[in-house]
Amino acid sequence: MRTVGVEEELLLVDPETGEPRALSAAVLARAALDEADGEVFEKELHTEMLEFATHPQSGMADLGAEIVRCRKEAARLAEGLGCTVAALATSPLPVQPSIGVGRRYQWMAEQYGITSRDLVLGCHVHVSVESDAEGVAVIDRIRPWLSVLSAISANSPFWQGGDTTYSSYRSRVWQRWPSAGPTEVFGSAECYHRRVADMVATGVLLDEAMVYFDARLSRRYPTVEIRVADVCLHASTAVLVATLARGLVETATREWRAGQEPLPHSVSLLRLAAWRAARSGLTEELLHPATMRRMPAEAVVRALLDHVGEALAETGDLDCAREACAELLRSGNGARVQRELMERTGSLREVVRECVRRTQA
C-alpha cells in the first residue's frame, strides 16, 4: 500500500484580535527544545506561518490522528507567546507579512518583489512512488483531476479584509509565482528532469526547489508531491484530500502500466479548470476533467470518486471517501464555512476565532 504524508502551513494569529502575528521564530525555538517537535515543525517564507509535516502513513485513520496531533501541538507551542494557530489559507484580516531571515528568503524578496509579500498557506500531499519513471507517468495522468482537489479544499474567500468572491483566492495569488501552475505532458522522467534543469538554468529560479508545479517529483522523498490544495479548515478535509490523492496516484499508475495514454488537455484548458475551481469551490459548476465542459460540482466530485473507486476500494477507503464527500457537499468546505460565519457574526475577527477553534477540534 502506498504511503501518504501531508505538509500543512498554519497561520499564527492573536487569539483575541485574530490578527496575524510574526512569531514563527519564537514558536520554532520552543519546538527545538523537544527532539520530536524539532523534526516536525519548520519555518516558511513568512514569519506569520508555521509548517508541519506528518510521517508517511499507510492508514488514513493514522494520518488523520497525526494531523490532529500536530495541530494541537502547534497550538500548545504557540500558547504563552501571544498567539495561536488557525488553518486558514489566507488571512481574513489585513496583514503586511514579514519575510523570514536567511539568504534564501532575502533573495526571493529581492527577486520577486511584491509577489513575495503575498501571505498564502497550502496543504501539500506526498504519495509514494517506486521510481521517477512511475512518478512522471503519474504527474502526466493526474493533471485534469487536480482542479477537483482544489475545489474540495477551498478555504480562502477573504483577502486583506474583504470578500474576494473566490472560494480559493490563495490559488489565484499563488499563480503569480513564475513556475507555478499546471504542466504539459512530459512523457518521461528524462524529459521532466531536462525541463526542470532548463528552468533553473534561466536564473529566474534560485534552484530546483522553486519549481512549483501543481504536481512534481519531491526532491527529498520518493514521492509525487501534489501542491494544489488550500490548507483545510478541518482535519477531516485534509484526510479526504490525501485519500483522493493516493487514489489518483494508484489509478494513474495502473493506466500507465496498461499502456493508457494521458488525456491530452492543454495547459490553457487546465488553467481554466483551475480558475473555475478557485472561483466556485463546491457551490456552483466545475469543469469535468475528462470533457472540460461545465457540470455541477456534485457531479464532478462523483466522477472523481468513480475514477479512483477501484483503487480506494482495495485500500478500504472508498466508503469513508464517499461519506466525507457527501458531508462536505452538504455542510460546505472551509470557504463556505467562513462566509457563513461572516454572515452570522458580521465580524472577520469572529470568523478567525471560530476557525481557531475548528482548527484544533
Automatic annotation (TrEMBL):
Top-level taxon in the UniProt lineage: Bacteria
Q: Which GO terms describe its biological process?
A: modified amino acid biosynthetic process
Task: Show the Pfam families listed in the entry.
Answer: GCS2
Enumerate the UniProt keywords alphabetically: ATP-binding, Ligase, Nucleotide-binding
Q: Which family does it belong to?
A: Belongs to the glutamate--cysteine ligase type 2 family. YbdK subfamily.
Q: What does this protein do?
A: ATP-dependent carboxylate-amine ligase which exhibits weak glutamate--cysteine ligase activity.
Output this protein's name.
Putative glutamate--cysteine ligase 2
Q: Which organism is it from?
A: Streptomyces aquilus
